[in-house]
Amino acid sequence: MSKYSIFSLARNAMSYHQNWAAAWRSPEPKQKYDAIIVGGGGHGLATAYYMAKEHGMKNIAVLEKGWIGGGNTGRNTTIVRSNYLWDESAHLYEKSMKLWEGLSQDLNYNVMFSQRGVYNLGHTLQDMRDIQRRVNANRLNGIDGHVVTPQEIKAAIPHINIDQGCRYPIMGASFQPRGGVARHDAVAWGFARGADKYGVDIIQNCEVTSILQENGAVTGVETSRGKIMSPKVGVVVAGHCSVLAEMAGFRMPIESHPLQALVSEPIKPILDTVVMSNAVHGYVSQSDKGDLVIGAGIDSYNGYGQRGSFSGIEHTVSAIVELFPIFSRVRMNRQWGGIVDTTPDACPIIGNAPVKGLYFNCGWGTGGFKATPGSGWVFAHNVATGQPHDLNRPFALDRFVTGHLIDEHGAAGVAH
Ligand code: FAD
Ligand code: PYC
Question: In a mutational test of the pocket of ligand 2, which residue from 369, 372, 409 has the highest number of ligand atoms less than 8 Å from its CB?
Fold first, then answer.
């Protein structure tokens, strides 16, 4: 921390944070921009940041219907890893991992990226074969990872249950040492501050209600704060992408589902890595504050509710207690839901929409937080140049017509 920041921190603390300069402006929307990004989650803000930084486009607005980071970005459990099976996704998530590794420095904002490692547990012989195959594929792509035995897992995580007589005995795991967690709000705020510094207008409480077109090309958007014109519109609204696609006159191969998570009361440090299991359907890490951060699979129904449910808690917590019997006495503190956008092949859709000048980035399902910087970086290229980057070309919408699917159901940490 520089001398200046220490003084400014002390001054602001003493003045009870009065007159603390806002990290980004709150401008009135202009009538026209060179590009509009719809959705002020991490992906939308990262897109605007990289469009300004890498492509010199500064007359950009990010339109957010609520507050920035108030969607899945601020509701997710922050697991970051890049151990995907197929080359296309491995390259994309690994690009993101490399950006994570320099992100706090690049933004000059601490996103609290902590590479504490991620374990994906296997509970059957077939799980272990799939894990071995995925680790081999990762290593061919230069992505770190290895297979570990139950004894090695126990040595690293003393409280885990490796009893072979239980319902889902742990038979091993993949371990990605460079995986970990980051602070979700800070990611949104860091990208927002970075984009704002380049002149990007971040406009909150501004809901897009229709997408304006003329002769097959986008001309702007209608919003709750009036009409805003632009020849380029990038849509990055996660669980609401089908709603926006309908506004533009086409259908997305997306289902929107609630995904729940919960945190316990804060406890002393007990878990210094991330543990995930698709078979028992639960995952857990411990935040810097001390809470256990816990989640499971998606709710099976479609919906837009951002709530948790008692059955969700019961199912998830029973899975976690099976892995960590010691957690049975910990009290749960808060629970919530987010709306995730799932595709038939568990991979995102990033690219040009069937309307000229309109671009969509969605379909990240339960796993897009880890992709935030990489997704913003490739989408910035796509929106700025009008053409996909090589890294996002395979994720075009038309793969659902051509049949070039990239099936990542096995590597999606949370089944969907
Ligand atoms: P969001 O952050 O949802 O941003 C989209 C924004 O668009 C929202 O702020 C919304 O208000 C806005 N919007 C919607 N409609 C409009 C409109 N009409 N006009 C203007 N704005 C609009 N991923 C991981 O990699 N690791 C995890 O551990 C993980 N855990 C998760 C746990 C939970 C409980 C949930 C719900 C998700 C989890 N995910 C995880 C997935 C991850 O959160 C998402 O894939 C990612 O955050 C999506 O980011 P985004 O910026 O695209 O979406
Ligand atoms: O994709 O790794 C993931 C994940 C973990 C929890 C939710 N998604």
Answer: 369
